[in-house]
Structure prediction request, 154 residues.
Amino acid sequence: MDKDLIFVKAEVSSIRQRRQFVQHQILAGQHASKAQVLKLAESHHCFHFSGHAEYNFEQPLDTYLMLSQDNAQNLTLSSILSDLQMQNADLVTLSACCTGLVDAFQPSDEHLGLATGFLLAGAKAVIGSQWKVNSIATAFLFDEFYRQFSCERS
Prediction:
């Protein structure tokens, strides 16, 4: 397991406990292929990603959620924009570094980033970060977030 992500299992375990509002299927390690992630993201109301992400300032469309050491399996912003349709998605939570980041200085009409991609794919709401995140802090943050969220929906 990646030493930087040692608390991901605790985060996922916490989410599993919120069964009253989250229909879940967990993809871990080699089971988290790009094709599987795209398929499941399209069919669920909530999509939660825990792992590594990287923002590419020079080529924003190459910004990605890391699914594997094989770069071809990474879920890029380009793939999200071209291959993902999330009409059912009420919420996307991205528990990874810089997932809400955009380059405000890029010369375009639209600020491109992972959060923008998921919104354009149809998600109603996206939670991401604009900085490097700590694995234990995000595990606690999302545990409390989903606890509060499940209370609101009960």
Q: What stands out?
A: Residues 66 and 74 are 5 Å apart (CA to CA). The mean pLDDT is 84. The first strand starts at residue 46 and ends at 50. Helices lie at 8-16, 34-43, 77-83, 114-120, 135-153.
